Amino acid sequence: MPQPSYIYTLFVSHVLESLPFLLLGIIISSGLLVFVDEHELVAKFPRSRILGVIIGSSLGLLLPVGQYGNIPVTRRLLLQGVSIPVCISFLIASPTINPFVILSSWQVLGGHPRLIFLRILGAWLIGIIIGFVFSTYSDKPVASEGETAILETRSTLVRSGTIVRPLEGFQPLHRAGNLIYENKEMSGAYRTLKQQLYVFVDNLIREFLELGSILILGAAISTAFQVFLPQAQLLAWGQTPLTQILVMGLLSLVISLNSLWAASFVSPLTTTLLLGSGFVFLLFNSLFNISSLALLFATIRGKAAIYLIIITTQLILLFAFVLNFYFG
User: Fold this and answer.
1) How far apart are CA 17 and CA 11, in angstroms?
2) Which domain, by its residues, includes 185?
3) pTM of the model
4) How far is CA 99 from CA 94, 104, 242, 289, in A?
5) Nearest Cα to 94, choosing from 189, 21, 170, 186?
6) pLDDT tens for residues 8-49?
């Protein structure tokens, strides 16, 4: 039985390595809400699906919010009217396609340039493909019960937050659940700096309490799995191209490493792992571990989130099988 001190240390490490990236994403989300005109923002993105998904899949280079920060930023972009292909391709690719992850991958896996190249190229291509798939999603303006015409177009992919109750008092923007939307009667040009700062801080606190609590719950579940899962036995079982992929996929789900640190886990195993097996862990861990799945289902509607997970998993496994059986 593991010592309580080890369990506590493992849990705290999970929280400390994930919360800063979530906070960074929430800061950018709040900044987009308050300081960026959403109509100008939408106008900057191309209407072409092809260009849209390419830009979305590359957007992490400009918004390096990491694995957990990408979720609040994606939600805000959807609420501000950015097209679904752009947002979904950003959601999938940004945990890997950002300068910090690319740099850390090179520092840790510099002796395995093929694996680094495949990690970056695979994330970018999968982001583009998933963006194309979701471009067929029909996103129509909806209004929740009790909302009025002042509500801007809202993406039907997004859940309305329900964890934190709205505060009483001054509310310059309209609220629906826990999410803030632009009031047409009060555009950014007419809000004072004091009001803008109030909304910025208020939204930052609300989103951090909502998503932070979910992330901490995911970290607790991940810690429990990591403590009691026989990792050494699983690694010993993965001796064939197929079982290696399955084992590394399971470990990537349970061991909720940030995308920055995933390369450090794979590095000691590169002498025994096939190329596709390392590829599976690096990509799958960056997208779908227990903590990130908890955040995803809290912000994206369940049916869309399930489709997103299934299609992305199939693509990652397909690439991994090709690498293991033909290039391993």
Assistant:
1) 10
2) 4-326
3) 0.84
4) 10, 9, 32, 21
5) 21
6) 888 888 888 889 999 999 999 999 888 887 778 888 888 888
DSSP string, 192-250: -HHHHHHHHHHHHHHHHHHHHHHHHHHHHHHHHHHHHS-HHHHHHH--SHHHHHHHHHH
Q: Which two tokens stand for residue 75?
A: 């939600």
Q: How far apart are CA 94 and CA 60, in angstroms?
A: 4
Q: Evaluate whether 294 touches 207 at the Cβ level (below 8 Å).
A: no
Residue 175: in which H helix or E strand, if any?
Answer: strand 174-176
- What are the start-end ranges of the H helices in 110-163? 113-134
Instruction: For residue 55, give the amino acid letter.
Output: I
Q: Are 92 and 53 a contacting pair, CB within 8 Å?
A: no
Work out the pLDDT band at 95, boundaries 50, 70, 90. Answer: very high
The alpha-helical segments, DSSP class H, found in 110-192 are: 113-134
Backbone angles phi and psi of 99, in degrees to 5: -60, -35
First and final C-alpha spacing in the chain: 38
- Nearest residue to 70 (alpha-carbon basis) of 46, 82, 50, 88: 88
Output the six-digit token pair for 246. 């399955």
Query: Please, which residues have CB within 8 angstroms of residue 301's CB and are 6 or more apart in sequence?
Result: 156, 157, 158, 159
Nearest Cα residue to 206 out of 169, 177, 178, 172: 178
What's the number of domains the chain is made of?
1
Q: Of 288, 211, 236, which Cα lies nearest the Cα of 257?
A: 288
* Mean pLDDT of the residues in the chain: 81
For residue 183, give the DSSP letter.
B
- Name the CA radius of gyration of the chain, rounded: 20
Neighbours of 51 (CB within 10 A): 13
- Please give the backbone phi and psi of residue 84, each rounded to the nearest 5 degrees, phi first: -60, -45
